[in-house]
Amino acid sequence: MILDSRRQPFANTNLLTLYDPVARIVTIVGPNGFGAPWLTPDQNYYLVLTTPTDPKSDLGGFRAIDRAPLSVGQEHIFRATAATGAKTFEPAVDFCGDVLPIFTLKCNNFTCHGAGEPAKNAAGLGLTSASAVQGTAVNQVAHGANTGGRAFSPAEPIPGLPFGVDMAIIKPNDPGSSWLVYKMELAAPSNATATAFSCGAPSAPDIVPFVPVGPADRDRLSDYVLGNAMPFPSDNTSYAYQPLTFQEREKIRLWITQGATVHDCSACTYSAN
What we know:
Blueprint: E1 2-3, E2 16-20, E3 25-29, E4 44-49, E5 74-79, H1 95-106, H2 130-136, H3 179-185, E6 195-197, H4 215-222, H5 246-257, E7 270-272
Antiparallel strand pairs: 1-4, 2-3, 4-5, 6-7
Helix pairs in contact: 1-5
């Protein structure tokens, strides 16, 4: 909750909260949209973090992936500064130039998500063509997240409100609700070299990690995100089957944040350096 300098809630409550599971940053977007100023310069504001009062709900507070709330409520005061004129602090990401090359080089094993026929792809998920991504990933419920009433009898969610029930593999504009992002985060980042592009240079520059996920976080995440880390760990030491780098994860996350737009990339070819 954001309060004004008089500790009053905003009359316009049309605020959007975005979570970056890769860099672990929470962004509050004002009523004028992402990147648009909405606070008065040189005014003090209060950020109030509360604990949920209903154990069966997330409303009114914050919970960790294991459903644990904050131990106590918190309050932080901050001062708004004048707009700098910058349009956004995050670079634009292109599906063909930034994202499909990662999928093509890291997920293309015939036993994984690169099979020519959709039925032969692992979990029915294809990631190596625009049509496959659009048809099997965007707004499609992940197999591992399908743990709601449709998967259990009686038709009630399993006790404890588990993480990610019926979560989409890719939910446009919402990486925090995209199963693919959490599957990527199960593996320690790779230090492999960057992807080579033949559709022109990628649009997204290098992104500096903020608070990357550590071993303890991955262990806890594996308790709630079913299945193996992606790309699937392999004894093959080639570039294609190593975990994604931080930069690759952030490009995928940015693409999802910016709408997960998919367009034809048939003129492009990709190879590892």
